[in-house]
Amino acid sequence: MIAKNVSTALAEFVVMHFLSMSLDASQQAEFVGQITRHQQALRAYIVSLMPGMDGVQDVLQETNLVLWEKRGKFKPGTHFQAWAYAIARYEVKAHRRKAIALGVTTLDDDLIEELAERGEKTPEELEQRLRSLNKCLGKLQDKERQLIEHRYFSGATLESFSAACGRPVDSLRVSLFRIRAALRQCINKELTRGELD
Question: Which residues contact 58 (CB under 8 A, 6 or more apart)?
Fold first, then answer.
């Protein structure tokens, strides 16, 4: 059994080495550029499939690893973002299965598929929304932006932020609700303004 595992691992190493050799340095650099260019959109797509769930950053990292591992299968000239989204969708489902095994309530697969289809149909709109979100985040007060960044980008708990800033968790939740509503309204205004230009 051990010999079989060793030979399997050796075979996988040889295949991975062969795949990496099959891409020359310029192709690898182009692939890294593709991953880098699409990080914001990919993260937003994953967030859209995991509303309210923890682990977005973990899923993004796993997606990036799988993209890199499968880089030899990507055909240059095809739609990289669509390919990356398909991989991200599978990683979200894998994360969901792990969460369910731990007793965490999550979205069902049908809803994830519906959200995925909506996200995949409009990558340009998603990019416009991200640009609008960045503008709107810039309009927030420092304390509001810190709360948003802590909640959605740090991976730390709201309780830890509560301890650091001295505000009750319930108060922070109310603030998050209000800030999200203001951001949603600001984004819609920015998108409308963009359509009129």
Answer: 95
Euclidean distance between CA atoms 108 and 106, whole angstroms = 6
Q: Which of 167, 128, 131, 172 is nearest to 148 (CA)?
A: 172
Cα atoms in the Cβ-side hemisphere of radius 13 Å centred on 70: 16
The model's pTM is: 0.47
The topology under which CATH files domain 25-121 is Rna Polymerase Sigma Factor; Chain: A (1.10.1740)
3-state helix, strand, coil in the chain (%, to 5): 80, 0, 20
Q: Structural domain boundaries of the chain? A: 25-121, 122-197
Amino acid (1-letter code) at residue 128: Q
Nearest to 119 by CA among 105, 133, 129: 129
CATH class of 122-197: mainly alpha
pLDDT tens for residues 102-147? 665 555 556 556 655 655 545 567 677 778 888 888 899 999 988 8
